[in-house]
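Thread: quick sanity check before group meeting

JM: Hey all, I'm pulling together slides for Thursday and realized we never actually wrote out the predicted structure for the chain we discussed last week. Dropping the sequence here so it's in one place. If anyone has concerns about the input, flag it before I start.
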Amino acid sequence: MTYTEVEAWLLDLQSYYKVGKVAYHPGLVGIEKLCQALGNPHKQFRSVHVAGTNGKGSSSHMLASVLQEAGHKTGLYTSPHLKSFTERIRVNGQPIGEESIVDFVERYKRTIEEIKPSFFEVTVAMAFDYFARQRVDIAVIEVGLGGRLDSTNIISPEVSLITNIGLDHTDLLGDTLEVIAGEKAGIIKPDTPVIIGESHPETEDVFKQIARKQEAPIFFADQMHKDSHYELDLKGDYQQKNLSGVLEVIQQLREISWIIPEAAVEKGLSAVVENTGLKGRWQKLSESPLTISDTGHNKEGVELLMQQLKSLTYDQLYLILGFVNDKKIDDILALLPEGAQLVFCRSSQQRALSLEDLKSKAEQAGLEADYIPDVNQALEIVRKKAGRNDLIFVGGSTFVVAELNEL
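JM (edit): ok, ran it. Output follows.
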């Protein structure tokens, strides 16, 4: 098989990302069967497990960057990808090679067709197999959705991190912070340290109770790391919220004898993009007019982004936004700054909210906007209108950002 054929075969399994919750099949039976057929590769390396509503991707990349700088051969598994499937699986920042993906599918295609796992289960198993074959010292594994029933939850990590809890994917995870926290807390393992990045009165007891049941030491990082002298190359203000959890994970790894010098922490945090290839987090696309993109896509994430945009100096703000159809768009539209010129677009994904539905919701919210289907065309048109001192922001959906040619 060629890589093009393999990628098409893999993406044909990608039903959840195409159509949403109707194709979501939570549980560990499929991944356990698949990994057993592969020789249980997840038991052949050590790991850190990262969950949370927002910030889990950035935190995972930060941790991988620091561990690389400390001299540890480091795997990194994240999802979804933005430009290439290979972004999901990295070792020391280098994405898995196309030939390794072809080799995996050719070795296990018949097994996959017999077991019939989901796309996500296949990608998780592929990552575990690759990390085992590459003999990584440690791998940072990002949860896909939730935690308790997520396919990544068959690992036995050195440390677990839950960045924060917000009301996202409520149709799948529950409609209260307490219930969602219970799902995320499903990654807490017996006698394994767990770090909570952001404490919250509605979720703190949930985490404490589950940690107590698992006899797992629990640490609330935002109560322990209030001031930081570290310089981050990730410039979104929200990264400071992620930093406390990352620092406490590093501390807990040190406590169990991992060697992570302070110099590696400083260098790793200042070179996350260079070391790991992270894209789409407060990423500057151009200087004049200043154009920024970010994948923040739920209420909590958009709220933080809008706060940072308001703190900048500009003559006119342009927002180019698109959304998926399973978000609470009314809540997000209410966060958009007054005076911003709005352009709504739509990604090519089936899950994308149609411009007709978006227009209806925007008009109900009293918002005036232009509607341009393609994000790149929208950006081109806005740049022709914008002055040198204006600010352009592109976001609202990971899929919209992924389709930017300049990313």
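AS: nice. Residues 98-115 form the longest helix (18 residues). The mean pLDDT is 93.
JM: adding both to the slides.
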